[in-house]
Specification:
Number of helices of chain B: 10
CATH architecture of chain B: Orthogonal Bundle
CATH superfamily of chain B: MetI-like
CATH topology of chain B: MetI-like fold
Strand content of chain B: under 5%
Largest interface: A-B, 23 and 18 residues
Family (chain A): Belongs to the ABC transporter superfamily.
Shape of chain B: globular
Distance between the termini of chain B: 8 Å
Protein name (chain A): ABC transporter ATP-binding protein
Keywords (chain A): ATP-binding, Nucleotide-binding, Transport
Number of strands of chain A: 9
Largest sheet of chain A: 6 strands, mixed
Bound molecules: adenosine-5'-triphosphate, magnesium ion
Structural class of chain B: mainly alpha
Number of domains of chain B: 1
Helix content of chain A: 25-40%
Number of strands of chain B: 0
InterPro entries (chain A): AAA+_ATPase (IPR003593), ABC_transporter-like_ATP-bd (IPR003439), ABC_transporter_ATP-bind (IPR050166), P-loop_NTPase (IPR027417)
Shape of chain A: globular
Helix content of chain B: over 70%
Distance between the termini of chain A: 33 Å
Pfam family, one (chain A): ABC_tran
Structural class of chain A: alpha/beta
Radius of gyration of chain A: 18 Å
Strand order of the largest sheet of chain A: 5-6-7-3-8-9
Largest sheet of chain B: none
Number of domains of chain A: 2
CATH class of the largest domain in chain A: Alpha Beta
Oligomer: heterodimer
CATH class of chain B: Mainly Alpha
CATH superfamily of the largest domain in chain A: P-loop containing nucleotide triphosphate hydrolases
CATH topology of the largest domain in chain A: Rossmann fold
Number of helices of chain A: 7
Chain lengths: 246, 275
């Protein structure tokens, strides 16, 4: 399937991002972080906990403007961005369906969401409130919200964290299903190497804080060939290329 | 919730029994309130019988005055006037107080600057505000309502400032990423988070406001419950004073039961999880 949208990639060039703590100590979270994600590509940012992955995404989402450097988001089609946050962040006082529809631009507000809800197994949950969902279902709803907006670029911040492994695995497959139906440029943060190898076209490996790129690992194999045998081969060659990385 | 199984009912009557117990469960609090109020009336009647005095009429006398005032229409005229002032002052105080409170709660430097003002206004006696309002703006309706609102606004500001400090930034960030419009942010992100604080400010607000409205009416208006009470005070007619007071308390109770509580139940429906 052809990627949707024009050809401007996601280009990141952050010179430095420093936090000032309340005591006046400054922490450099990012330094000389630069990478690109090609159009329609699914990339993973892989790095140790606390290295600055969420900070990077927050900058790209426009939530943190206090940094030096620049970045460019893909354009064309829609200029919309979508995000799946580390927490589901659904409005507790709106139903699942209202949560999804509120995120849509006016022109898409009344669009038919049956297919998306069906694929994600949320068809019977549309009128439930988030408090009535398990964490796994809430994360699915957050995925539904992100994909419903038909974004030009999609950011995901450890969307499967704190789920048991079986649920996480189910959700990874669901993510691949909805993503393949409309391959959007996507950047996903994770510290789970297996997850990155299973989902992505390319892995951007980050160093310890202050985060910068250690190197790239391309997974050229189509996803449906990535069976357990192939995955262990991929793992081995990843470890050869990046011996220090867990 | 279902009542425990009593054991000796015919099979097939389950639905019937559970719906009856549901009705009983719904009626019990109402019944408790009714019995409790009846008890208070009896106690009052007993006391009035024990110490008969013109200054301490029994419930029967007060009821007669109430019926008479209702029959000639005076009661509803004055109740309506007072209720209108309460409603107007409430709306003004809630809107102005909420806006100021949310602004102070989300801007720390503004908060630090205006905090002393707030303490000052919190401590100005209601009577002073009312007298000054009548002197500066004349004995008119706007001055009356404004004076009541000004008395209430600092309380609303303090409560809503707490609410704004408790706002969860992750919802605002989600709304920014998905480009919610300004009105949508207020309606779907801001107000639902402030709802408990709005409810708290409303509750303490209505109680305070109607008491101040009576003072305002007494000092500078020629109709309304406060004016009537002042009138009957000069006539030393305690039965009429009590009749008007009870009528207005009853109106406020009905508003609480039929308006405030249903609205609150609706606003918090998402908190209830089905069992
Ligand atoms: N608001 C802040 N103020 C001060 N320091 C911060 C702030 N936010 C993040 N940091 C620091 O920046 C560094 C990177 O944080 P970040 O949340 O980006 O890590 P992460 O890679 O997402 O980690 P994790 O995998 O645990 O989510 C951390 O050391 C953290 O202490
Ligand atoms: Mg993080």
């Amino acid at each position: 399937m052809q990627p949707v949208g024009a050809v401007v990639p996601l280009r990141v060039d952050i010179a430095e991002k420093t936090f000032k703590s309340a005591q006046g100590v400054s922490i450099t979270a990012l330094q000389d972080l630069s990478f690109e994600v090609r159009q329609g590509e699914f990339a993973c940012l892989l790095g140790p906990s606390g290295c600055g992955k969420t900070t990077t995404l927050r900058i790209l989402l426009g939530l943190d403007k206090d940094f030096s450097g620049s970045f460019q988001l893909p354009e064309g089609g829609s200029n919309r961005i979508a995000a799946v946050f580390q927490e589901p962040t659904l409005l507790p006082w709106r139903t699942v369906e209202q949560n999804v529809r509120l995120a849509l631009p006016k022109s898409l507000r009344t669009k038919n969401l049956d297919g998306l809800f069906d694929t994600l197994g949320l068809a019977s949950m549309r009128s439930l409130y988030p408090a009535e969902l398990s964490l796994g279902l809430a994360r699915r709803a957050a995925l539904a919200r992100a994909f419903a907006t038909e974004p030009a670029v999609l950011f995901l911040d450890e969307p499967f964290a704190s789920l048991d492994e079986r649920t996480a695995e189910r959700l990874r497959h669901l993510l691949l299903t909805v993503w393949s139906a409309r391959p959007t440029t996507a950047l996903m943060v994770t510290h789970n190497l297996r997850e990155a190898l299973m989902l992505s076209d390319r892995i951007i490996v980050l160093a310890q804080r202050p985060a910068h790129v250690l190197g790239m690992f391309d997974v050229r194999l189509p996803r449906h060939y990535r069976n357990p045998q192939v995955m262990s081969d991929l793992l081995r060659s990843f470890h050869q290329k990046f011996p220090g990385v867990a | 919730m279902t009542a425990p199984d009593t054991g000796d009912r015919p099979p097939g009557a389950a639905a019937d029994i559970s719906s009856q117990s549901g009705l009983a469960a719904a009626l019990t609090p109402v019944l408790t309130v009714a019995v409790s109020l009846l008890g208070l009336c009896l106690l009052w009647g007993f006391a009035a019988n024990a110490w008969p005095s013109r200054a301490f009429p029994g419930p029967g006398q007060v009821g007669q005055v109430l019926l008479a005032e209702a029959a000639n229409g005076d009661l509803f005229y004055h109740l309506g006037a007072t209720l209108g002032r309460v409603a107007a002052a409430y709306v003004v105080a809630m809107v102005v107080g909420s806006v100021i409170g949310v602004l102070l709660g989300s801007h720390r430097s503004a908060d630090r600057f205006f905090s002393p003002w707030l303490v000052l206004f919190l401590n100005i006696p209601a009577l002073v505000v009312i007298v000054l309002a009548y002197i500066w703006f004349g004995l008119n309706e706007a001055a009356a309502i404004g004076a009541v609102a000004v008395n209430k606004i600092p309380n609303v500001v303090v409560t809503m400032r707490e609410g704004a400090r408790a706002l969860d930034p992750s919802y605002a960030e989600m709304a920014a990423v998905y480009r919610f419009g300004p009105l949508e942010r207020i309606r779907h992100v801001l107000l639902p988070q402030l709802q408990p604080y709005l409810a708290a400010a409303s509750r303490s607000g209505i109680a305070l406001i109607w008491k101040i409205v009576l003072v305002v009416e007494l000092l500078g208006r020629s109709y309304g419950v406060g004016f009537q009470i002042y009138l009957y005070f000069q006539l030393f007619d305690v039965a009429a004073i009590l009749a008007y007071t009870l009528a207005f308390v009853a109106v406020m109770l009905v508003i609480e039961l039929l308006l405030v509580q249903p609205i609150e139940r609706y606003a918090t429906r998402w908190r209830r999880r089905p069992a």
